[in-house]
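Fig. S4 source data, part A: sequence.
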Amino acid sequence: MRVDRSFAEKANPSYPHHLLSKLTQPNIMIRESPEDFLATLKSHVPDPKQPLAAIRQDLSAFYAGMQEQTVMGSDHHIEGVSIANGLRGIWVSLPESLTERVVLFFHGGCFTTGSTDSHLGLCIRLARASRARVFSVDYRLAPEHTFPVAVEDAVSAYRFLLSRGYGPHHIVPVGISAGGNLVLSLLISARDYGIPLPLAAVCMSPVTDMLFPGESMEKNRGRDWLTPEQLHAIRTVYLAGRDVRDPLASPVHARLAGLPRLYVQAGTHELLVSDIGAFVDKARWAGVPVQAEIWEGMYHAWQLFAEQVPEGQEAIVQAGAFIESVLSR
């Protein structure tokens, strides 16, 4: 169930719940209930003592398996391109994708894992929902490449699209989890560098504060498949001693005035929901137009598991409608 209201209202128990609207569920196979599938996700959280190469391989295979029906059942086209200095982007398009519309996509994975391959099903669903081509960036990962390399890769990917003739009004950056953090860091960097900004951006379960100070970190322990320990490890592996309050690492600590319109999705059971709420509130105070949605009962990055959780597809459809409304102007 999707809830359109401010994060402050969410915390108010007197909020009139009769205003909550149930979205129509798509006709997809549900393997498990969201609660049962949460147990599946928890069972696949990697042992941090494993070698990183094994963790990456296991997670990639698991995520790919969760999206297999989408990938196998779609008429999609993939084309890899070189951006710069070994950085690669992958075009994902469908027959209905309009060539002038681009979703610039950044995958999740705590800045240490993940790729286009492990998020291909999500890319396909985003392309279908927005009738756009998806340009997914395989940014460099930590610990081999620590902060701010991934941010630099995000900026390079955006510059690449601009240099190929795509106007900023034809590009919508979209990111999930760590990728949502990169979307915000890209916007802040582009504003500061004087690079023309896109009209809007989409963040799904974004990491907004590397201090992770929100009360939901403990309140939602066990209700999310992530653990506080996993999130805190980002500071060690990704930041590698850099300032956790650096605006490009923790966008909540950035100057946010002048950023374009934002569309943010978060789940009530996420460890990060309080931090995301703090960012949304600060952005609004800075004059940034923010459309924020809180999805009841949803955990971190549920959009990635649209084959198992119907709310995942609902969220993608909503994000796609937002993207299409921006790109059709």
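Fig. S4 source data, part B ends here. The radius of gyration is 18 Å.
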